[in-house]
Design a protein that fits this description.
The protein is mostly helical. The protein is built from six helices and no strands. It starts with a helix and ends with a helix.
């Protein structure tokens, strides 16, 4: 079914709904209770149909319209048509913005890919101290699992550590004495 046929069918259904609502409102159309109505009353279900056998109005109360805030079926129908056109307009606008964003993302992805394939750019970035430091910090953080990364700056020398480990208590005592003496 084409879009025009679907719209025409929708228009016809809306016109039928308006006519039925007008007849119900005028009291010309009375429906016989159905099996579902009996079941609803048995279990205490609330239906969406307006009640015609409601309690008498109290002093100062207004009779509510079956159309909510709308005075009659025609004003309800007109409001529906306005809402439908606004929804269509916003849907089209949203689709247009989404398409523009996708196009911009694709353009930026191509531009970024072009930058990454530029050898001169990559060479400049490889020699930038800030970038090198950040890459090393990220790498060490991922390997050490902490936020604090020990880094030697300013050309410091690494500390020497003893390769020989003591095997007896006497060797440990001698090693401790050497360390205390500063050797």
């Amino acid at each position: 079914m084409g879009k025009k046929e679907q719209e025409k069918k929708q228009e016809e259904l809306l016109a039928e709904v308006v006519e039925v609502v007008k007849k119900v409102n005028d009291g010309r159309l009375v429906t016989a209770p159905t099996k579902d109505d009996a079941e609803d009353k048995a279990v205490g279900a609330v239906t969406n149909r307006p009640q015609t056998d409601s309690y008498p109005l109290q002093e100062g109360e207004k009779k509510s319209s079956p159309y909510g805030k709308f005075a009659d079926a025609e004003s309800l129908y007109q409001a529906y048509r306005a809402l439908e056109s606004e929804f269509t307009r916003r849907s089209q606008e949203s689709a247009k913005i989404k398409k523009e964003l996708e196009e911009e993302n694709n353009r930026l992805a191509l531009q970024f890919a072009g930058i990454l394939s530029d050898e001169d750019f990559l060479e400049k970035m490889a020699h930038d101290e800030r970038i090198t430091e950040r890459v090393i910090r990220n790498y060490l953080t991922s390997k050490l699992g902490t936020g604090d990364v020990p880094m030697l700056t300013g050309g410091g020398a690494p500390c020497a550590s003893s390769v020989k480990k003591p095997k007896t208590l006497e060797e440990a005592k001698a090693l401790a004495e050497l360390m205390l003496q500063g050797h």
